[in-house]
Amino acid sequence: MTQPAALPPGSTIGMLGAGQLGRMTALAAARLGYRVHVFAPDAADSPCAQVCAASTVAGWDDRAALAAFAAAVDVVTLEWENIPVPTVAFLDERVPVRPGAGVLAVTQDRVAEKSFANRLGIGTAPWRAATGADDVARAMAEIGPRCILKSNRLGYDGKGQAVLGPDSDPAAAWAAVGGVESIVEGFVDFACEVSVIVARRPDGAMRPFPVVENRHKNGILDRTTAPAGVPPATAAEAQRVACALAEALGVEGLLAVEMFVTPGGGVLVNEMAPRPHNSGHWTMDACATCQFEQLVRAVCNLPLGSVDIIAPAEMENLIGDDVLRWPEILAESGARLHLYGKTEARPGRKMGHVNRLRPAHR
Ligand code: AMP
Question: Best substitution site from 147, 148, 218 to test ligand 1's pocket, by max atoms within 8 Å of Cβ?
């Protein structure tokens, strides 16, 4: 099989999705001399379009717009894993899409994702698929009443989830997640949460970033610490698991894998996303290559960059009104502020982040 050639600087990368992950990818791409063309229904004045060479505002099912977009770009990547699979398949007939439709089909669906991991012998929380309140009741009986009910699709940042206990009513929980196909997961009493982002090129070359530790507030990532304070064997296992999943899925681009560390030091996969990830934002200031540049390198089939840590670091998300603290963050020595160009600071909305190298409390 002939290997795809490297796509040289000056080429145009198509970006599906117009949020902050696309924005930071476009900035990294521009630094390497690439142009980015964003396509999304909500692209107009989006965080991504603000920094792109071109933008298309059209629906995911607008075939004429998709065909024109495919003709205008040299490769396509994405910053949101819920792009409809038929959209990606349509584009992929015209221009390489990295990662491809097969990867999205697995990572868009929690049951498919967990089945995939388990088939590889990779551990997850115990789980059952649920298509009704009866399934929820049966799952609670089988895996214990302390569970989390999550909608299979389109859940993120703790949305579409209900925590269940011995007194929970399965029917009420089913209604609370919207009465859609769901998964019931046993509650994991984890020691900590970690993640690994791995880059994989079309020719199969792979490089994982260091393991980081994540703390959540109200179901949303609050802080990431790099590197994670876990034993070396746990870190090595987390990287092994992320690479095994990226390889088996045939990811071209990035795969972010969120995991629970058990009290015994093992890891259980929670979620994966085939795109840049919030827990990788620390790499912008504290790693030899940032995750966004690594994505550009991977999808353009360039040499993958070094993942050496420059300094231990902490990333703090700025959610909603946190962004109003920008003047004090700018006045803080060594703090590196990244804002996403969003005008409205709604509660729960990711507005920016700040990276601190060698944070004082460590
Ligand atoms: P998710 O949307 O699956 O990433 O879940 C958001 C957050 O909820 C995770 O980062 C955990 O903090 C928590 N969580 C999710 N699933 C479980 C579980 N099975 N056991 C314990 N905590 C969980």
Answer: 148
